[in-house]
Design a protein that fits this description.
heterodimer; A: 257 residues; alpha/beta; five-stranded parallel sheet; three-stranded parallel sheet; 10 strands; 40% helix; B: 65 residues; 37% strand
């Protein structure tokens, strides 16, 4: 069971809270997924507005741990200021650090990411960096104080699954003792299972559940897939081979030709 | 004086950030604040004096991925 800054969830699904058809469906999806950690964000609150307060009440009633993000930030300063505001509002030093470098792919600006990660880690934050599968960048993030890495599967919201399974496998092998979470791009439970079969420690997703026709049912499907994938990794899968290998013993077969 | 509150011009009588939040209807709400791009912790709002043209950001919890 992987531990994320000392917290070891039974179910390593990090579920996003955005884009659900209604707050009630969001709550149902969180419950049915069994997720123990949900991601949240910060946005401008109008004077006299109550939307943010209502959302926060809903999340607190679910009794889950929150992981605030810095979504939409493009610079180190923006991300650091957002993280500071999130720490105060949500009462947690966990931060999902996103510094976006390119708007078509929402690819992280890994150079700014490392700098922001260092500033925040030095300030006592527990940083969950949204990064790529680049192992050199991963090493820099660890040097900066991160104890978890969250490489993307594919661009945020694309639902493409694991674009680079080779890169993700390499990352797993390169950092055998670091908790690794595939964050973003997951579309189907099979994608989540694939990541867990590679030995990943958790999955962070939002759109695939929130935009499904039945978000609560999809949330449960993801929970089952993550469990299946993790069990399979622990069970040590066989190596694929090109030629057939008979599974039924040949010895003792009746000679009927 | 006139401030920029979440990007929109706003006239206020308040002198400090804490007074401004009360005047604008944020009293008792769970919000975080930044002035001119710098985070201002809740405990510092009473001592933070505002100036004409300051950019104030007031944020609250929100759905996120």
């Amino acid at each position: 069971m992987a531990s994320f800054y000392g917290f070891a969830p039974q179910n390593p699904l990090f579920l996003g809270t955005a884009q659900y058809p209604s707050p009630a469906i969001l709550a149902e999806a969180v419950k049915r997924s069994g997720a123990e950690i949900v991601t949240v964000s910060l946005r401008r609150e109008a004077a006299g507005g109550a939307e943010g307060q209502a959302f926060w009440t809903l999340i607190r009633e679910l009794g889950v741990k929150v992981l605030p993000n810095t979504a939409g930030c493009h610079t180190v300063k923006e991300a650091v200021t957002t993280a500071q505001m999130a720490r105060e509002v949500f009462g947690t030093d966990w931060i999902k650090l996103e510094v976006i470098g390119e708007d078509d792919t929402l690819q992280p600006d890994v150079i700014a990411l490392v700098e922001a990660a260092r500033i925040l880690s030095d300030d006592g934050f527990k940083v969950f960096p949204y990064t790529t599968e680049d192992i050199v960048v991963g090493g820099r993030l660890l040097d900066a104080g991160c104890e978890v890495l969250m490489p993307w599967g594919a661009p945020i919201g694309s639902g493409r699954g694991l674009n680079n399974p080779y890169g993700l496998r390499t990352m797993r092998q390169h950092f055998p003792d670091i908790p690794l979470v595939v964050d973003a791009g997951i579309g189907l439970p099979s994608h989540a299972a694939q990541a867990m079969e590679l030995g990943y420690d958790g999955i962070l997703l939002n759109t695939a559940v929130a935009k499904a026709g039945d978000p609560a049912a999809m949330a449960e499907a993801f929970a089952l897939a993550i469990r299946a994938g993790r069990l399979a990794f622990g069970a040590q899968p066989i190596e694929a081979r090109d030629m057939a290998a008979p599974s039924t013993p040949v010895m003792g077969k009746a000679f009927l030709a | 004086m006139t401030l920029l509150l979440n990007g929109a011009p706003q006239d206020i009588a308040a002198k400090t950030l804490a007074e401004a939040l009360a005047e604008l209807g944020y009293a008792g709400k769970i919000v975080a604040t930044a002035v001119n791009g710098e985070f201002v912790p809740a405990r510092k709002r009473t001592e933070l004096k505002l100036n004409d043209g300051d950019r104030i950001e007031v944020v609250a919890p929100m759905q996120g991925g």
